[in-house]
Amino acid sequence: MFLKGVHMPRFFINHSATPGEPVVLEGEDARHIATVLRMKAGEKITVCDFFNTEYTCEIEEARGAEVRLRVLSAGSVESEPPFPITLCMALPKGDKMDLIVQKAVELGVSEILPFTSAYTVVKPDERGKEKKRERWQKIAKGAAEQCGRGRIPQIGEIRSFGALLAQFEKEEALKLFCYEREEGRTLAQAFQENPHPRGLVFFVGAEGGFDGKEAEAAERAGFLPVSLGKRILRCETAPLFVLSGAACAYELM
Questions:
Q1: What is the pTM of this model?
Q2: Of 253, 252, 250, which is closest to residue 82 (Cα–Cα)?
Q3: Among the CATH numbers 3.40.50.1220, 2.60.40.10, 2.40.240.20, 1.10.10.10, which is that of 10-76?
Q4: Do the strands 66-76 and 85-90 form a parallel or antiparallel pair, or are they unpaired?
Q5: What tens-digit pLDDT sequence spans the chain (253 residues)?
Q6: CA-wise closest residue to 11 among 109, 148, 209, 129
Q7: What distance in Å separates the CA atoms of residue 70 and residue 24, rounded to the nearest whole number?
Q8: What is the DSSP string of 13-65?
Q9: Half-sphere exposure of 135 (CA within 13 A, CB side)
């Protein structure tokens, strides 16, 4: 039994709802509620739409393939960052991307766009790309439910560095390029110089970082090269470092 004051399980719906009306969850979410959590009629859960609203709901009936809910109340989601944050992440080796996706969602990322670059070792074929994206999207959904997000961050298709960079040439957000050879501007300085950004877009390289031509292309596209400090961070640590810094600079002040 989930008691008052304890974090209620959270699930997502793709439409808005109204207090008093029924909501139906089906498929994997319904099976999780009925067979994994073993929740019963009368217990409460939270469902969230993609319009910054969350709903406290009471279970009316829980079967394996379908769970029927009644909406008790609605309220605004307060767990989202003050502006959209896009992580452009070069494909790392092994299963490191699983960890990056999970923790980036917990830290407030809005979108993760994977790409291949000069030093990328992993270069999957088209079928492999889609399988990876589906896996990462599932991880993002689970992380969003666990940490109380108001939306499920989307995982983009795997693209080339050049194609992804071109997408943001006219972007008005704060655009950062995490570059291990940068000796001037630090991440902290970039945040201090931009106290009220419309959004944040940042690139992180895989093992080996970026080559010089990629760094030059990023600057031409309006990205600010930034240093992440005097220590060498692993590729799975770097994006979490940036997201934590952004939270301190813009959310927790």
A1: 0.88
A2: 250
A3: 2.40.240.20
A4: unpaired
A5: 333 334 688 999 988 999 988 999 999 999 999 989 999 999 999 999 888 899 999 999 998 789 999 999 999 988 899 999 999 999 999 999 999 999 999 999 999 999 999 999 988 888 889 999 999 999 999 999 999 899 999 999 999 999 999 999 999 999 999 999 999 899 999 999 999 999 999 999 999 899 999 999 999 999 999 999 999 999 999 999 999 999 999 987 5
A6: 148
A7: 9
A8: -SS---TTSEEEEEHHHHHIIIIIS---TT-EEEEE-SSSEEEEEEEEEE-SS
A9: 14
> In 3D, which of 164, 36, 248 has the Cα closest to residue 11?
36
Burial grade of 232 (CB within 10 A; 0-12, 13-18, 19 or more): exposed
Sole residue written with tokens 């944040």 = 200
> Which three-class secondary structure state does DSSP give residue 70?
strand
Best CA proximity match to 224, nearest among 197, 171, 187, 198: 187
Q: Where are the domains of the chain?
A: 10-76, 85-251
- Whether residue 30 contacts residue 54, with contact meaning beta carbons closer than 8 Å, is answered with no
- CATH superfamily, with its number, for domain 85-251: SPOUT methyltransferase, trefoil knot domain (3.40.1280.10)
Do the strands 154-155 and 111-116 form a parallel or antiparallel pair, or are they unpaired? parallel
Q: Which residues of 112-137 are buried (b: 16+ CB within 10 A; e: fewer)?
A: bbbbbbeebebeeeeeebeebbeebb
Cross-strand bridge partners of residue 200: 85, 174
Contact between 43 and 1 (Cβ < 8 Å)? yes
